[in-house]
């Protein structure tokens, strides 16, 4: 190809406007001359030339338009050509300096990779909307009683609220429950929900196969239909479409399969597997006690959540007036479903994202320092380019392109790292983080990583590029490399960078330190029971077969005896709940006070068989344990925990006093006091708790348990090995009773502390990475300073300075920015640590021990990082120092 | 003689310009003069309509322009044909031949 067309010479290249004018003028001029040569006068000739030309203005306009378009196109194509050249040059440079490239890319990849991994978790758990139409219009409505927080709704309140509201398009209630599915090979327990007819309409999700149930199915007598989740359909029926119309037996009653939901309706991997209509009876609809319903609602278009809340406030006021017995002091609150769905994982994940962002910033600081050091070495190259006509803007662009290439190459490595980190994160994370298993490198995460790379490139490339472009050509070319730039200003930039790195690392380490302190504090507190060697599991007694209290009590007793007789078992018990598993609450009123809501002490009910306290290793502090004589017909008794005793009768002996509330009806005598249990660590506020003997429960109380109970056994051998024997006992009594959720009590405790431990581990890990990066950064800068001052050091040593003086000289250069960083970091940390305040146990967010320890740790690391180059400088002989510096 | 329509002009003007600058690089005025001489001014082109055509053809890459010095010592923009312009010219000539052969066959047979 012709070189001239590829690179047209531009010795005289005027603007498009000038060019068009010149060309047209030339034409008119030539034509005029020709006509004059033919004999016309100059005036006549000009006139004729213009006439022959036609509309000059229009021609000029057309030509300008085409010319401008062409120039624009050429300029952008030139820009991209230059960009390509710069990028190719940057890549060649990276390959030419492999050590520099490796360190820079590894540092950045670590930052970008870790940040991308945490981001994809945040995206999967928090940011992605629920996969239903208009998820923003979905809200959760809760009851609120006094300061007890948001709670479930009673059927009566739900039905009345639904009838009176007009701010929601659809409202539905559901309750998650476990079903016992009869199968040939034994009973299986599945998690599902009973829901009102508007449930699927509220979500606006239809069945993928068959149909969903609606209000017409949600009537007693017509409710024996079931909708399957996609995951259950796939797992259990191999995604066979012919299951429609088939019958399955749930809790010993036949249900017809009418539909299968789409896979997107499986919000989480442990979401419900089946849905059946709840079919309230007229009695249930009138019942304003028993708060067990989760209520969802779809807000109407054009109605704000505030307006909805105002209407709910009015409805709640109405309910309070109509049902003072059940609804006094009760309110209704509405909040976005996403908030309920994500819970406090939002806060925890954003703390992690912030922490990992700090690591990335420290990484950027280090790379910025590396580039500054290299910029000094490249000053000559840039001065030559500048002398050859490259403008400042062009040089900055070249350097930025280099940063960008470095950033993007690091992003590629970072994405690979993120991919691995996500796998580790998902595998090691505590159970129950919603949708975490859906975290992956998708388009959003890729975009995030690339955006991160670009922003990082600007962050770490800005100062070096600016510095390099400002280099004075003359002095650089004259003095060579060592005269480049104003060293004083450069030193300030470097000092600032390590100061900032130290500050960021300090904030990270304070966060990690606080969580460690909190974990130590949590470990010191006794849980109040002895979890070692205790086996526990759940079982469900199908209501159809175990309807009456006698049948249940009999089964419970048989299972307890069977398990007690297993060799190695020292004590066994049945309980509605074991420590750490949530239970239902009851309002208790001490005898002597009016049975009104304002006198109620909301307390957690635990129904237990004799031997429970021995099995769990819970000491009886006062009074006595339940005896076999505390059975149906005998005087009703209960045992309370310390907190409840204190709340009911402050500083008085609770033994022998009477309490009303809970089932069965009638005053119950307090016969004993047990300690408060700290299952979730001492962080969780202690519940008011009471225990009742199972033998005295009535129908209503058994209903609350849904006949799903725990069996627990203390053994002298390995608790986990009890499983087969317990299963054998239960299967021997009734093969239709499923046993599930088998865990030792130690495992249950570990599971609840898992989230805290996982968070602590991650933050400690990030803190350590930040510490190492900051240390490397300090080392690099001090080594650079020392090398810049080699000749000065030589002179000082020649004049008699001792090695100690030289050490002090070099180290002291690091001291100021490090101390500055520690002060700024400590102030920032005092603010940032509030973000984890809710995760702290017996530790304040400004715990002085943590702050001092972390500051000391950073000082030591900084000192070590500075000492290495300082010792090297001090070990130089004055002669060689002077020679190399000359 | 009626003024030729713009479309006809477009269709014929560009091949003629290509033919012109294919012989030797010329500036705009020289092209205009060549058009008059070579076609006996049958096209009756307004001088002004030549330039948008030149700019368009430059944008399409058929011709390239360069500022140089004219025979009178003035700065003038000189156009030369590019390889892509030569291909274009050959294609237009072939098309024209095919077209006129076909039309002639019909019109000239009695």
Notes on the protein architecture:
The complex is a heterodimer of chains A (886) and B (110). Chain A is an alpha+beta fold and 886 residues long. Helix content of chain A is 54%, strand content 15%. In chain A, a hairpin with a 4-residue loop joins strand 1 and strand 2 (150-151). In chain A, helix 5 packs antiparallel against helix 13 (345-387). Chain A is globular. The two termini of chain A are 52 Å apart. Mean pLDDT of chain A is 86; it is low at 1-12 and 480-486. Chain B is α+β, with helices and mostly antiparallel strands and 110 residues long. Helices cover 64% and strands 15% of the residues of chain B. In chain B, strand 2 (63-69) and strand 3 form a beta hairpin. In chain B, helix 1 (6-23) crosses helix 3 (47-60) and helix 1 (6-23) crosses helix 4 (83-108). The model of chain B has no long low-confidence stretch (mean pLDDT 83). The chains are: A alpha+beta (886), B alpha+beta (110). Chains A and B meet through helix 2 and helix 4 of A and helix 2, helix 3, strand 2 and strand 3 of B.
What gyration radius of chain B follows from the Cα positions, in whole Å?
Answer: 15 Å
General form of chain B: globular
Number of DSSP helices of chain A?
27
β-sheet strand percentage of chain B: 5-15%
Class based on secondary structure composition and strand pairing of chain B: alpha+beta
Mean pLDDT of chain A: 86
Q: Overall 3D geometry of chain A?
A: globular
| Major sheet size, sense and barrel closure of chain B | 3 strands, antiparallel
- The unreliable regions of chain B are none
Overall pLDDT level of chain B: 83
Give the N-to-C terminal Cα separation of chain B. Answer: 28 Å
Helix content of chain B: 55-70%
Give the distance, in angstroms, between the N- and C-terminal Cα atoms of chain A.
52 Å
Helix tally of chain B equals: 4
Strand content of chain A: 15-25%
The total strand number of chain B stands at 3
Quaternary: heterodimer
Q: Tell me the total number of β-strands of chain A.
A: 23
Q: Describe the largest sheet of chain A.
A: 12 strands, mixed
Give the SSE string of chain B: HEHHEEH
Structural class, judged by helices and strands of chain A? alpha+beta
